[in-house]
Amino acid sequence: MTRLVRADNPGPMTLEGTNTWLVGRERVLVVDPGPADPAHLAAVLAAVAGAGALGGVLLTHRHPDHADALGHDVLRSALASARAPVLALDPALGDPPTPGALAAATDEPARLLPLPGHTDDSAALVLPGRREVLTGDTVLGRGTSVVAHPDGDLGSYLASLDALLREVGAGAGAGPDGAPGGSGAPPWRGLPGHGPVVDDLAAAVTALRAHRLARVQQVRAALADLADPAGAGGPDDDGLVVAVVAAVYPDVDDPVLLGAAARTVRATLVHLGRV
């Protein structure tokens, strides 16, 4: 069983807010407890108590909008009282999310799928019995995940999309290449870190991969134009990033989104070996 408690931290990067997912019927795993907001944590713990006992916390990655709640006394006290662990791929934040640790933390069959790229510690929680994947920020409910230098690595992100597609493509209403399958099984759903539920995760991942590769080609084209002697004439790294952002994201003027675009372009330039 999965339930959503959404944090009240909407914004350009968090969409409607951080999605905290509760996994399990009586022994409940809290996935991404969110920001250090007492009202949100009270709502999360009330929902856990309404179902059963707190089995533990799992982080899909280290970013503050998903993990800062770990530092709040309300959650720390609840975890201590339940003798429940924090599970995370980043050893600075929690214990390894091994199969045994997950089985002890929730009564819903679950396994971890490492998906580096958005961050090096990004992961998804696969719920095979429900045909659901808690995707963190690797796949959002709408829009595209930021793969931002230095946290993000574009090559790893593309490989992780391929790994996720292999996980949910076969027999999920879509084939490994995203084409319709013939199994008759319903599509896997994505339960993202932000935004609404993704009803067909394989289709969404296929579209995300195509979009990301198209952005890479746009950056290549911008670099080719900038190499023209009449163009920018070989700016330094920061100047190159600014010039490519202007070429690839001409309609973006929000400062927050421009910052994200610059970090994304820098990650793409690193991927292409240009910075």
TrEMBL record:
<protein>
    <submittedName>
        <fullName>MBL fold metallo-hydrolase</fullName>
    </submittedName>
</protein>
<dbReference type="InterPro" id="IPR001279">
    <property type="entry name" value="Metallo-B-lactamas"/>
</dbReference>
<feature type="domain" description="Metallo-beta-lactamase">
    <location>
        <begin position="17"/>
        <end position="175"/>
    </location>
</feature>
<dbReference type="Pfam" id="PF00753">
    <property type="entry name" value="Lactamase_B"/>
</dbReference>
<dbReference type="InterPro" id="IPR036866">
    <property type="entry name" value="RibonucZ/Hydroxyglut_hydro"/>
</dbReference>
<dbReference type="InterPro" id="IPR050662">
    <property type="entry name" value="Sec-metab_biosynth-thioest"/>
</dbReference>
